[in-house]
Amino acid sequence: MNISSEKRIRYGILALLFFGTTINYIDRQVIGLLKPTLEKEFNWTETDYSNIVMAFSAAYAIGLLGFGRWIDKIGTKLGYAVSVFFWSIAAVAHAFAKSTFGFGMARVGLGLAEAGNFPAAIKSVAEWFPKKERALATGIFNSGANVGAVVAPIMVPAILGAYGWQEAFVITGAIGFIWLIFWWKYYETPARHKKISKEEFDYIHSDNEVVLETEAPVKWITLFKIKQTWAFIFGKLLTDPVWWFFLFWLPSYFAETFNLDLKKPSLPLVIVYTATTIGSIGGGFLSSYLIKKGWNVQRARKTTMFIIAICVLPIMLAQFTQNIWVAVGLISLAAAAHQAWSANIFTTVSDYFPKKDISSVVGIGGMAGSVGGILFPLAIGMILDHFKLLGNITAGYNIIFIMCGSAYLLAWLIMHFLTNKKNS
């Protein structure tokens, strides 16, 4: 089976998911890169900024729950299109905010709409890839988040320097409307796609999981009675907030600890987020490789995720370095490990649940991750404001790194217990 024929359609679909996720993360990261500028413009404290991040996280949590169920009902094509359309509008709306409250409202709109990305993308992967390829496919499209995080530190400062902070929101927000044209023109499910070959269709369904498009998902409340749902919930609750920290606070961490100038393209941030791309694809590749070598799906996934959890631990050592490049190395390893974790934890949903219920479970777990994303920024704001008053904000970041380092191993232990066959 060669990639020029039998894989052409599904990898074209994967490219759409990759670029959609890239745009998703560019739009959400702009505010983190503009944080020093906006703090001066609107006289924000760390707590003010934390509240804005929390507003996004709360809206994202609500949006995940709603979009997850809705996409299972109406399908990926329309659901994803609606999500991108409204998040692009919300991203542009930041440019017209005149107050902290205005920014909060724009973040709420962005959070609600961006929540459709992962339920739609994970469901699309399950529709277009057999189980043995899903972790790698998820790792590839999820690496779009990392590419977005690499592009933004280059793109946003350049726009800020040339035009201003308002234009940074307008230009980045408008990209989503271009993507929408390609999505609407090229995406369909395999059963409806006019150009898919019989060989590729049969390969996609080679895991014998055939679900009629008219078959309804199970009742939403029923999903909460399944231990695998709770495994995904706790896995996301404990680890998602770490990525939010990397996304929204790393620029200011490097600025405040190592005097990094955020008005210029930032090489340390580019290195960190480039490493996450390697982690996302590598993590997806490892579990898919083990499955192809004959390991059962659960063993391959759990082993990979345990290795990933161990790789996050060294970030605790960041507190002992005065060298920016040592810090970049430790943080890069942890951030790459997070994306490797993300590629695998998303895939566990399609391991345990039928295609018709995937978006609903992803939405539920994603909501839990966003709840963590609400609580963790609150703690971050309090910790950093406290140590800023003491004149030692670096000590505050050190405490946060310890919390980040231990989160994944704890999550792995809980997930292992809940999905252990003896406890099922």
Q: What does it look like?
A:
This protein is mainly α and 424 residues long. It has one domain: MFS general substrate transporter like domains (Growth Hormone, Chain: A). Helix content is 79%, strand content 0%. The protein is built from 16 helices and no strands. The chain has helices at residues 8-33, 35-42, 46-74, 76-93, 100-114, 117-128, 131-162, 165-186, 198-204, 220-223, 227-258, 267-292, 297-312, 324-352, 358-389, 393-419. Helix 4 packs antiparallel against helix 6, helix 6 runs antiparallel to helix 7 and helix 13 runs antiparallel to helix 16. The longest helix is centred in the middle third of the chain and has 32 residues, at 131-162. The two termini are 38 Å apart. Mean pLDDT is 83; it is low at 1-5 and 210-214. It comes from Flavobacterium rhamnosiphilum. One of its GO terms (molecular function) is hexuronate transmembrane transporter activity. Its main location: membrane.
